[in-house]
UniProtKB/TrEMBL annotation:
Signal peptide: none annotated. It comes from Lineolata rhizophorae. GO terms for cellular component: peroxisomal membrane. Coiled coil: none annotated. PANTHER family: PEROXISOMAL MEMBRANE PROTEIN 4. This is Tim17/Tim22/Tim23/Pmp24 family-domain-containing protein. InterPro entries: Pmp4 (IPR019531). It comes from the Eukaryota.
Length: 220
């Protein structure tokens, strides 16, 4: 045990064990996030036997956990390689973007037909949109960190900037819901399957009932 602890703590092996720990954390986090979500969504909205549903839950959980683990390995490995190739031997400002491109393509980009991949990427994309919107109006001296950071200061007028900050979320939420309801009404095939299924359950099945039982106790 002492020998193993010494090897793990040795700086010479730090990068290697970082990959091991990153893969482990990706697996654990992916499992924690996907398993309860898949359990609820599949058992509530999918048809089939208990065994079939359980298989789908475990399959989605494995896919989510595995992809997060492999993305971490790919990203961290790319960062190490870029650092070694750098003339300064230090991390470049855009190394994280390049490493993200590599990991995004190898792990998620080639599996576009996977619903799990689509959900993860859409989640990330939504967070990127919100973050970029904040950066556009954030002052250059706000949010700085070592080696970079700070807003882009698109709006110079302070009063206008605060007004935009105060109403940006309202506009974003309003337009998002307007857009998804329009797509669901006229182009449902373009919406991600699990979202389409839940929307169908809420907004279309609510019109289908014939007695008290199907009105309050059972959907159909």
């Amino acid at each position: 045990q002492a020998t193993l602890d010494g090897i793990i703590a040795d700086p010479a092996y730090h990068n290697l064990f970082t990959l091991v720990k990153g893969f482990r954390n990706g697996i654990v986090y992916g499992t924690k996030v996907r398993f309860p979500h898949a359990l609820v969504m599949i058992f509530l909205f999918r048809h089939g036997t208990f065994r079939h549903k359980l298989h789908l839950v475990l399959q989605a959980t494995r896919h989510h956990a595995r992809n997060l683990g492999f993305f971490c390995i790919t990203y961290k490995t790319s960062m190490y390689i870029l650092r070694v190739l750098s003339p300064t031997g230090k991390e470049g400002h855009y190394d994280s973007f390049v490493a993200g491109l590599v990991g995004g393509y190898l792990v998620f980009g080639r599996g576009i037909h996977s619903s799990v991949n689509q959900q993860i990427v859409i989640y990330v994309f939504a967070r990127v949109v919100l973050a970029v919107a904040k950066l556009l109006v954030q002052r250059p001296d706000e949010g700085r960190r070592r080696g970079g950071g700070g807003g882009w200061g698109l709006i110079r007028d302070e009063a206008l900037r605060r007004k935009v900050e105060g109403s940006a979320w309202t506009v974003f939420a309003t337009v998002s819901w307007a857009a998804v309801m329009y797509l669901f009404r006229w182009h449902p095939e373009t919406i991600q399957p699990s979202l389409r299924s839940s929307m169908h359950y809420i907004y279309e099945d609510c019109e289908k009932f014939s007695d008290l039982r199907t009105l309050l106790w059972r959907n159909k």
